[in-house]
Amino acid sequence: MSQTREKLLQVALELFAQSGFHAVGLDAVIDGAGLSKQTFYNHFESKDDLVLAVLERRREMETKLFAQLFEDLAGGDPREQLYANIDVIQAWFRQPRWSGCICIRAAAEFPSPTEPAHQFVAAWFEETRKHQQYLATLAGARDPHKLSIQIMTIVEGVINVRHLTGSESGVAGARELLHELLDRELPAVAVQQGAELRAASA
Asked: What is the pTM of this model?
């Protein structure tokens, strides 16, 4: 990737995260990068093209960040990763210069399911849900698909509370709800470990 395209992406990502997609005009991005309009159009076909590139960049960044946070807080165990969901979200809230959830912002500003930006974040959400379903399957959940939807509902709820209140006031309650849900839907640890021991000795 050229340095010029990278500069445009970095400036646009910061501006969009701070002020929203519609509130930031193309001129603001171009001026912020210190470039000409012609230079911009040498790298992006339109503002919509830039928006999709910014969403893809943010997805790449957050995929790496969340993988590291889950590893740090829960290791590689699927069950522990499920229980750590809200702890990871809280750690994300506390990242330097946290700027909110770009998925929620994009879904709100591009509400039509036919808009490319909306389709992108919907696919991103579904990718995350499927990963939760995968972890739930490995952890022995009774209904991994249903559980993944319930987990995502709790996670998205606490993120929205953070957006609305500017505080972590929803974290403790979300953690309690999540743990109660997982305690109900996952096999007891002792039962699970016993099954694993029996399988290993068979």
From this structure: 0.88
